[in-house]
Amino acid sequence: MKSADHPKPDALSRRTMLFGAVSAGVLAGPGAAQLSTDVLLRGTPQLTTGPFYPVLRPLDEDSDLTIIRGGQGVAKGRIIDVAGRVLAEAGRPVARAKLDLWQANAFGRYHHPADPAQAPLDPAFQGAAVLTTDSDGRFRFRTILPAPYGNRARHIHFDVTGQRRRLVTQMFFPGERNEDDRLFHNIFTQAQKQAAVARLAPAPTGKGTPLYLWDVVLAGEPDKPGA
Ligand SMILES: [Fe+2]
After folding, report:
1. What is the DSSP secondary structure assignment for residue 187, as one 8-state letter?
2. Which one of the listed residues 85, 92, 110, 166 is annotated catalytic?
């Protein structure tokens, strides 16, 4: 086969890379087969799952990642709250959407056997959670600020399943050098970059815990429930 059949990744346009990823099955899941390329340019951006999807599930997967039920101590790091809604493009809240989320700990290490980082594990950090949105499409969880690692900016991974659309994405933090993160930099549109970054709520919650607000917009999700 000629070398021209295998262009170097740098020679590929972002679009080619993304659609190549699509055809490679990155978007496997409910509704993936019906996704048009147009849908991928709207709403919260589709991003890679990455290598650290939790294969070792924590003992509990509830909405407080700072404590493991039956475990000891509190996770190290800056405790934060994250709240938002899962929405269809027209603004319809997606009730009973599932959010499967995972992140690095305060040292930049995943609780994953393939993570080569030398940074320590934190046995008190839950590291992953599975949440379901309420009837208004709302979700909320407590965690710690994930450390950046390698060339990655701080982020939290999400695999969101709505009624029809499934979206694998990552939430980024405001005030960070996100453009230095190649994955963030390669998000297609400014609107999608904005959609990937959480906002810091003007007032913290309870005991001064920072609250980050982040809505997930599922392009391609039906505008009416059951449609
Ligand atoms: Fe990651």
Report:
1. -
2. 110
Ligand 1 centroid from CA 48, angstroms: 9
What residues make up the domain containing 52? 33-218
Name the catalytic one among 112, 157, 165, 166: 157
Span 5-51, pLDDT tens digits: 333 333 334 443 444 344 333 344 444 555 677 888 999 999 999 99
19, 28, 147, 192 from 163: Cα distances, Å:
23, 15, 32, 21
- Ligand 1 mean position to 104 CA, how many Å? 7
Taking the C-alpha atoms of residue 133 and residue 203, their distance in angstroms, rounded to an integer, is: 23
Residue 20 lies in a domain: no
Q: How many domains does the chain have?
A: 1
Concatenating the DSSP letter of every residue in 147-167 gives PPBTTBPSEEEEEEE-SS-EE
Given the residues 42, 111, 112, 149, the one annotated as active site? 149
Residue 73 CA to ligand 1 center (angstroms) comes to 24
Let me know if residue 50 belongs to a domain: yes
Decide if 155 is catalytic. yes
Q: Which residues of the chain, if any, have pLDDT below 50? A: 1-31
- Domain contains 94: yes
The answer as to whether 14 is a domain residue is no
For residue 203, the domain's CATH number is 2.60.130.10
